[in-house]
Amino acid sequence: MTRLHRRTFLVGGLAAAGAPLIGATPANALAYPFTLGVASGEPTADGFVLWTRLAPRPLNADGLGGMPNTPVTVEWQVGLDQAFSQLAASGSATAVQTSAHTVHVEVAGLQPDREYWYRFRADGHISQVGRARTAPALGSGSALTMAFASCAHYETGYYTAYRRMAEDRPDLILHLGDYIYEGAAATGRVRTHSPSAEITNLANYRVRHALYKMDVDLQAAHAAAPWLVVWDDHEVENNYANLVRQEGQAPAGDFRARREAAYRAYYEHMPLRSAQAPVRENMQLYRRVNWGGLATFHMLDTRQYRSDQACGDGSQNCPDADAPTRSLTGNAQEQWLLDGMGQKFGTWDILGQQVFFAQRLAADGKRSMDAWDGYTANRKRIQDGWQARGNTSTVVLTGDVHRSWAANLMNNYTTQDKVIGTELVTTSISSDGDGDASHTGVTPTNPHVKFYKNLRGYVRTSITPTRMNVDYRAVDKVSVRDMPVKTVQSYVIEAGNPGLQAP
Ligand SMILES: [Fe+2]
Fold this sequence. Notes:
Blueprint: H1 3-11, E1 38-41, E2 48-53, E3 72-79, E4 87-95, E5 102-107, E6 115-122, E7 125-126, E8 130-133, E9 144-149, H2 160-167, E10 172-175, H3 202-213, H4 216-224, E11 227-229, H5 255-269, E12 287-291, E13 295-299, E14 315-316, H6 331-341, E15 348-352, E16 367-368, H7 376-388, E17 394-398, E18 404-412, E19 417-425, E20 449-453, E21 456-463, E22 467-475, E23 486-494, E24 497-501
Parallel strand pairs: 9-10, 10-11, 13-15, 15-17, 17-19
Antiparallel strand pairs: 1-2, 2-5, 3-4, 3-6, 6-7, 6-8, 9-21, 12-13, 14-16, 18-19, 18-20, 21-22, 22-23, 23-24
Helix pairs in contact: 2-4, 3-5, 6-7
């Protein structure tokens, strides 16, 4: 956009960052609506998604954020600099009540491999400024700083790890699930869920998402970099599988309707493209994002299509878990993943997914039925598939378990035959509260598992065409605000030479 165009915006009342809002701004009908911050996501070589929601009263029980039932025009700007002295793109979108006045803008036509800033305006109010980034063009790209996180139970701790992640100023952030938790408010915790009951309908999912997004540390992480998000179970209901709900304690009701409400609220509150918009209780969340010639992100959905957990879920010694018909991904996603791993647009194949990938046996031989250990034939087909395609720079990223782990992926876990990939498991942002040093998860039953730590935090990676530097970042407590972060473990992974190495 030209300077002339920017001038038109200014006459319309949009002040430059830092300048006082005087004169041209009309009287506001709405109270300040950008209470949930701003976000970007889904970077390509020429654009990204911009997100915000108008919600002057974000915790209103009807889930409508205190907005009237009228469409509101939301203007947006993408600047070449933080002061918006030159615009790269601008436009407007209409926020409507049927989507809780959320805004998803798919910006295109930008330059590859560069930083941008963005902001919104509605009813004379101006949002916070966010930083976004385009990916390099296919065939190029020399360095990427990527951080990933999961599991941010609001009640069990402050989001200091999100804040520290933002301060690292990564180019890209991956969130691997449990972005919200569906449970009722509990007593004696660091802070309290709203609504207070377990959420099961659209209004309540919207209020819960709003509560989480009111957190300023989470807002800082969204404003720092574009995100790629995938869900796990708690965005809907603990340990659900496809349309099979958790056994036992789940509230009564139609699970199909609950999943529809949860998926809809998730889409509304995330910086996703319209290609991901849900249709009733279905949502196409697995997708690929290319980071030039450097990396391909295969973002997986291990909830929506999975076979029900074997032997009643939990930790089991369960031969059924090895049945060839069982699948965590579903057949279509498995084939899509292997097709994508055969494309080799990027040096690194990075699987952004939820549950523990490597075999992990307890001392008594039991394994988690909710993780890949409960779907071993599916895991073996995928591992064999990437070996058959000659992929030697595969890194699996994992969340879910609220602990930091690192593992070598083996062609055969029983015989410990050759390393074929690497798994990095991030701990939680806050789930399970303050950590401890009381036990180690690294045991002789799993020789390929190299690292375990029970502190809250995230993982930071720095990726080049020849190596990936990995830092496990942790805070000592999440029951106290503003703790410093430290690196508790580092590894190097070499391109073409799978497995963890000392830095
Ligand atoms: Fe979790």
